Amino acid sequence: MAVNRYDDTRAWYTISTYSGYEDKVAESINQRLDSPEFKGKIFGALVPKEKQIEIKNGKRKVVDRKIFQGYVLVEMSLSDETWYIVRNTPGVTGFIGNGTQPTPVSEKEIAKIKKRMGVEDPKYSVHYEIGEVVSIIDGPFKGFDGAISEIDTGKGKLKVMVSMFGRETPVELDALQVKQL
């Protein structure tokens, strides 16, 4: 009988994948959970994602974005056998850890990741300051520059003072419709 080099307590581990293969790797592992080789040893794979707002052609769209590009979380009891099964899943490049020893992800970190994934309201990222001059890159004012006069971080909106016909005119824009100069 082979000696197990690993502690087989149930924990979450991070595996690295080829970029763009995260969903395929997780799906491949999750499809085999009921097979005898996985039962009671591997409990699931997860690609951490969060909702974000994207603007394309003036239309606002909510998209799922991967939090950690190129990584998948796997809940399993680590043993030589489970290490081999997961490591040889197509698209997997290895486990994250010290040397050859995979390191479990702390329950605290897993809770933070799951909380971030569970937030239903998409994130607005507003990295601007009042008075900052920005260029409008989308919408009817595309090509204009203006100074930010107000910021609503809750809604991801900016009020930009645009000079038209010799007058400063306030224009309300989504933060994704402008870029820094």
Report on the architecture of this protein:
This protein has 181 residues and is an alpha+beta fold. It has three helices and 14 strands. The protein has helices at residues 22-31, 80-87, 107-118, and strands at 10-17, 42-46, 49-56, 59-66, 71-77, 92-95, 97-98, 101-102, 104-105, 133-136, 145-152, 157-164, 167-174, 178-180. The strands form four sheets. Strands 1, 2, 5, 6 and 9 form a five-stranded antiparallel sheet that branches. A hairpin with an 8-residue loop joins strand 10 (133-136) and strand 11. The protein is elongated and about 75 Å long. The chain starts with 9 loop residues before the first strand and ends with a strand. The mean pLDDT is 85.
Strand content: 35-45%
- General shape: elongated
pLDDT averaged residue by residue: 85
Largest sheet: 5 strands, antiparallel
Radius of gyration, CA atoms, in whole angstroms:
23 Å
Count helical runs.
Answer: 3
Number of strands: 14
Fraction of helical residues: 10-25%
* Uncertain stretches of 5 or more adjacent residues: none
Distance between the termini: 66 Å
Reading the helices and strands in chain order gives EHEEEEHEEEEHEEEEE
Which class best fits the helix and strand makeup?
alpha+beta
